[in-house]
């Protein structure tokens, strides 16, 4: 693999297949858990254990990617997700299974995704740098965003239709099969380029060294630190915004059992991924600095969240949720490029995993807080509270802007 086009093609192919596999169950997972005999509280507790798994293993799996290799980490993630998906299916077939078993399976699912989180981005950036890529990272990540959205749209809708035509277990079988395909593709096409694991005398000592260096280039590096510390506020609110959209739209629509309307919210997010990736170039042409994009989009989406919370019209809420999703999706490639250009290759996966850890931590804290606000005041007012929480990210982005005073963006439309 000697050309950047080949690296990018492999990244997009793996993104499509793995996202299609993952999203196959996203539209039916709660129904699946309830059908397995779990109560509503237990179903959401199982989802919480998934997040706990991501928080616990984000940094250790990032260290694996930086010490053993990005490809190895990705393959381990595929195997872990394959096994935990089959475990979910087995527990569903045995309604008498204790909740502790569901908790363990959910933690393993979280572990599987953490093997992906830092390693995939690090592999792409290392490969592009090593093969002489002349385009911008924003453009590369935007293409990945489009591919991710298209795969999520197809997977979510396909999983729902499969469950409707057959039964709730079939999407999980298909997911496991697609994860098998992902493993084969990664084994054959994904090789570490631009990254060579250091010879290790002691794995523990090497991991300590990686963690120390990662702190130096992560939380101890001001331009990176402030953007990472903004993540819990924006990511936490986005998790609530996604999961609350379904009951909120049903409430405005006036029907509690119209599952097609509930599924529309997941479709909006998938569509937003595509539109956001396509609009990344236009957004980049307006701003000279990436931190300017972060400031503008964070503030604008905060305003949109307030408008969502104030509306009583189903169609207005639907339109505003679409706008919110597109803006959030357009920001993602810019933020990814900003962080990756400031992190050395040797510590890249660990620092990116630390960033994901902070974002997941925000989801653990902010989501139940806003959920409680929805219980007390309703979904609309909780969106307004969420806007206030998200705006708390702005001071951190401003500090990043000051720390990176010489930051100049490479145009997204630069030749590749």
Short description:
This protein is mostly helical.
Written description of the protein model:
With 416 residues, the protein is an all-alpha fold. Helix 1 packs antiparallel against helix 7, helix 9 packs antiparallel against helix 14 (379-391) and helix 10 (259-286) crosses helix 12. The protein is globular, with a radius of gyration of 21 Å. It has helices at residues 4-23, 29-35, 40-67, 70-93, 99-130, 137-165, 170-189, 203-217, 222-253, 259-286, 290-310, 314-341, 348-377, 379-391, 394-403. The two termini are 16 Å apart. It has 15 helices and no strands.
What's the arrangement of secondary structure elements?
Layout: H1 4-23, H2 29-35, H3 40-67, H4 70-93, H5 99-130, H6 137-165, H7 170-189, H8 203-217, H9 222-253, H10 259-286, H11 290-310, H12 314-341, H13 348-377, H14 379-391, H15 394-403
Helix pairs in contact: 1-5, 1-6, 1-7, 3-4, 3-5, 3-8, 3-13, 4-5, 4-7, 5-13, 6-10, 6-12, 9-10, 9-12, 9-13, 9-14, 9-15, 10-12, 11-12, 11-14, 11-15, 13-14
Radius of gyration: 21 Å
What level of helicity do the residues show?
over 70%
The DSSP helix count reads 15
The gross shape turns out to be globular
Task: Output mean pLDDT.
Answer: 81
The major beta sheet can be summarized as:
none
Report the portion of residues in β strands.
under 5%
Instruction: Return the structural class.
Output: mainly alpha
Quaternary organization = single chain
Tally of strands: 0
Span between termini: 16 Å
Q: Low-confidence parts lasting 5 or more residues at pLDDT below 50?
A: 410-416
N-to-C series of helices and strands: HHHHHHHHHHHHHHH
């Amino acid at each position: 693999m000697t050309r950047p086009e080949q690296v990018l093609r492999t990244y997009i192919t793996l993104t499509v297949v793995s996202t299609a596999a993952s999203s196959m169950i996203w539209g039916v997972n709660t129904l699946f858990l309830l059908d397995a005999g779990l109560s509503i509280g237990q179903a959401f507790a199982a989802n919480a254990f998934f997040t706990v798994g991501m928080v616990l293993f984000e940094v250790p799996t990032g260290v694996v990617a930086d010490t053993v290799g990005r490809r190895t980490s990705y393959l381990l993630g595929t195997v872990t997700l394959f096994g935990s998906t089959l475990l979910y299916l087995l527990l569903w077939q045995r309604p008498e299974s204790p909740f502790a078993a569901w908790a363990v399976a959910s933690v393993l699912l979280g572990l599987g995704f953490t093997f992906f989180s830092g390693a995939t981005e690090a592999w792409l950036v290392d490969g592009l740098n090593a093969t002489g890529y002349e385009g911008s990272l924003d453009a590369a990540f935007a293409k990945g965003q489009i591919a991710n959205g298209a795969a999520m749209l197809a997977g979510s809708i396909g999983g729902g239709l499969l469950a409707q035509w057959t039964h709730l277990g079939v999407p999980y079988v298909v997911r496991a099969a697609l994860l098998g395909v992902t493993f084969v593709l990664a084994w054959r096409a994904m090789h570490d380029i631009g990254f060579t694991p250091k010879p290790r005398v002691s794995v523990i000592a090497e991991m300590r060294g990686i963690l120390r260096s990662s702190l130096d280039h992560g939380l101890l590096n001001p331009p990176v630190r402030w953007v990472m510390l903004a993540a819990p506020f924006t990511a936490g609110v986005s998790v609530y915004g996604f999961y609350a959209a379904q009951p909120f739209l049903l409430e405005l629509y006036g029907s509690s059992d119209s599952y097609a309307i509930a599924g529309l919210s997941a479709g909006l997010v998938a569509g937003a991924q595509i539109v956001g990736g396509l609009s990344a170039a236009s957004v980049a042409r307006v701003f000279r600095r990436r931190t300017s994009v972060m400031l503008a989009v964070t503030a604008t989406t905060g305003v949109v969240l307030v408008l969502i919370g104030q509306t009583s019209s189903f169609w207005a809420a639907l339109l505003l949720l679409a706008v919110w999703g597109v803006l959030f999706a357009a920001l993602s490639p810019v933020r990814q490029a900003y962080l990756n250009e400031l992190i050395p290759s040797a510590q890249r996966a660990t620092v990116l995993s630390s960033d994901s850890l902070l974002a997941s931590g925000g989801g653990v804290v902010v989501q139940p807080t806003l959920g409680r606000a929805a219980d007390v005041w309703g979904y609309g007012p909780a969106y307004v509270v969420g806007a206030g929480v998200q705006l708390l990210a702005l001071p951190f982005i401003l500090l990043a802007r000051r720390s990176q005073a010489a930051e100049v963006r490479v145009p997204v439309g630069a030749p590749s």
